[in-house]
Amino acid sequence: MKRQLTILIGFIASIFFSAKVWALPPCPGNYNERKWNNCVSTRLYEDGSKYIGEWKYGKPHGQGISIWRDGGKYVGEFNNNKR
Fold first, then answer.
1. Membrane-spanning residues where (predicted)?
2. What is the rounded CA–CA span in Å between residue 42 and residue 65?
3. Cα–Cα distance for residue pair 10/67, rounded to 1 Å
4. d(CA 56, CA 37)
5. Is residue 66 part of a domain?
6. In this structure, what DSSP letter does residue 52 have?
7. Which range of residues forms the domain containing residue 37?
8. Has residue 35 been placed in a domain?
9. In terms of Cα–Cα distance, which of 34, 77, 75, 78 is closest to 57?
10. Buried b / exposed e across 10-43, counting CB within 10 Å, b at 16+?
11. 51 located within any domain
């Protein structure tokens, strides 16, 4: 029983720590197309819409949330600024 509990705790800990290792860092400073690469941040656009999520080469790429001014939203995968 102790052995099973030890294995279970080790398994849960490995999942928790591996998720932290693979998480992307926050994007540096204000939006910058050249610097926002392989990072996570929020950008508020002039039209009132907002994107929260992963960035690659200054574009939404990866997991993210797009929220439009009218309240509609998309949650999911982005690929080079396209959903």
1. none
2. 9
3. 39
4. 4
5. yes
6. E
7. 25-83
8. yes
9. 34
10. eeeeeeeeeeeeeebeebeeeeeeeebbeebbeb
11. yes
Place of tokens 């928790």: 16
- 59, burial (CB in 10 Å: exposed 0-12, middle 13-18, buried 19+): middle
Sign of CA dihedral 62, 64, 69, 72: positive
Q: What is the pLDDT of residues 11-53, one digit of tens each?
A: 565 555 544 456 899 999 999 999 999 999 999 999 999 999 9
In a domain, 72, yes or no: yes
Q: How far apart are CA 24 and CA 47, in angstroms?
A: 27
Strand 39-44 and strand 50-56: pairing?
A: antiparallel
| This prediction's pTM | 0.72
In the chain, the amino acid numbered 55 is W
CB-based contact 61:51 (threshold 8 Å): no
Counting the structural domains of the chain, the total is 1
